[in-house]
């Protein structure tokens, strides 16, 4: 398998999840501005959508979209909440909320929008995070078991902190718990990122990424 990624981008959730699932995988970095990969491939030719993540399977088939990739990885792990007929649906429900409600709320913050738009975006992020915080049970979103949804949420909590969006205190504690997981530490190190909540920006954050995400 190969994951196409950009440091600190949403593709970090796939990297974390692949490491959590102990799936062997290679990585290829994409420059989101030039759309050229670290090995000089034209990314838009490989993935006409032009964005990360993209996961190429062992048989060469390519999967895009965070929800699809994260579910594929989840399906390579022991069943989620076996015995609960709504178990997997709840996971899809959470991934959908993260991908279609929380993730797009960050867009004005990445795109150098006007200050008024950025303030509105921070409020939108915070209101969505407040809803998500209510879902945390015991350690993680679905209780004691860390899931692909936690990996995705963790990535966006990094963004929220970097952009100064307020978040409930439960999420600060949750963030620190997730950051301590070996697969998360490994993933952050591989992308040259810092795990603590107090770093204002991503370790490898560049203006190119800022304009492209
Ligand atoms: N709908 C896509 C969105 C992915 C996305 O927004 N990726 C960002 C990084 S977090 C990206 O690659 N942006 C660069 C671009 O759109 O050109 C998904 O859920 O996978």
From TrEMBL:
Pfam (any one): GST_N_2
SUPFAM superfamilies linked: GST C-terminal domain-like (SSF47616), Thioredoxin-like (SSF52833)
Domain of life: Bacteria
Gene3D superfamilies associated with the record: 1.20.1050.10, Glutaredoxin
Organism whose genome encodes this protein: Croceibacterium selenioxidans
InterPro entries associated with the record: Glutathione-S-Trfase_C-like, Glutathione-S-Trfase_C_sf, Glutathione_S-Trfase, Glutathione_S-Trfase_N, GST_C, Thioredoxin-like_sf
GST C-terminal domain mapped to chain residues: 84-201
UniProt protein name: Glutathione S-transferase N-terminal domain-containing protein
All copies of domain GST N-terminal, residue ranges: 1-81
């Amino acid at each position: 398998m190969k994951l196409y990624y950009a440091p600190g981008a949403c593709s970090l959730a796939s990297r974390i999840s692949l490491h959590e699932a102990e799936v062997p995988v290679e990585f290829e970095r994409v420059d989101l501005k030039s759309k050229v990969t670290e090995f000089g491939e034209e990314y838009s030719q490989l993935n006409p959508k032009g964005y990360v993540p993209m996961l190429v399977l062992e048989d060469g088939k390519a999967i895009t979209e965070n929800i699809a990739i994260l579910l594929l990885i989840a399906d390579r792990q022991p069943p989620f909440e076996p015995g609960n007929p709504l178990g997997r649906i709840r996971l899809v429900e959470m991934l959908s909320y993260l991908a279609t409600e929380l993730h797009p709320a960050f867009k004005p913050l990445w795109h150098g929008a006007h200050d008024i738009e950025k303030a509105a975006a921070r409020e939108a992020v915070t209101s969505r995070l407040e809803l998500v915080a209510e879902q945390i049970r015991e350690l993680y979103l679905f209780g004691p078991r860390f899931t692909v949804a936690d990996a995705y949420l963790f990535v966006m909590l990094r963004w929220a902190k970097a952009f100064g969006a307020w978040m409930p205190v439960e999420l600060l504690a949750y963030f620190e718990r997730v950051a301590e997981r070996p697969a998360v530490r490994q993933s952050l190190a591989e992308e040259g990122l810092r795990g603590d909540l107090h770093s204002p920006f991503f370790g490898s954050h560049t203006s190119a990424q800022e304009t492209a995400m």
